[in-house]
Write a structure and sequence with these properties.
Blueprint: H1 11-41, H2 55-75, H3 79-97, H4 103-122, H5 129-134
């Protein structure tokens, strides 16, 4: 039992931690994008366009980042590329859309930004599709 609390070089704990991080953090993100997906499919044109790339494109990129990219991260597929997309999305949300807002309004975006940064640095770990598909045998 005490061995569990000792610092360990055992990669298994790290890989399990990455799996838990990927699954639970990004499952919680998908409901935030679901309503945006429905409004995008309905053709809504009242979405913020903070980077002046077009309302539909901004809406599409947000849906991508809040619904489809999290699925890649949950399964650990193309993890580092997916993490870069999430980092970009949440930087824009925190520091462009909420630029003049108090910290509390930025907090939600920052709470998703940090795990995305961690996954960019670490990759998905052993329990992922990245490991199954791309790891040398």
């Amino acid at each position: 039992m005490l061995a569990f609390f000792k610092p360990s070089s055992q990669q298994t704990y790290t890989d399990l931690g990455l799996l838990v991080l990927r699954i639970f953090v990004f499952i919680m993100l998908i409901p935030h994008g679901y309503d945006k997906l429905l409004s995008f499919l309905d053709g809504a044109n009242d979405f913020p366009d903070p980077l002046h790339v077009g309302v539909r494109f901004s809406h599409f990129m947000t849906v991508l980042g809040e619904v489809f990219i999290p699925l890649l991260l949950i399964f650990g597929l193309f993890t580092r590329i997916a993490a870069v997309v999430e980092i970009g999305l949440f930087l824009v949300i925190a520091f462009v859309i909420h630029a003049s807002d108090p910290f509390g309004d930025k907090e939600h975006a920052l709470l998703y930004l940090v795990p995305s940064l961690a996954l960019l640095l670490t990759g998905a770990g052993k329990y992922s599709l990245d490991a199954a598909l791309f790891q040398k045998k």
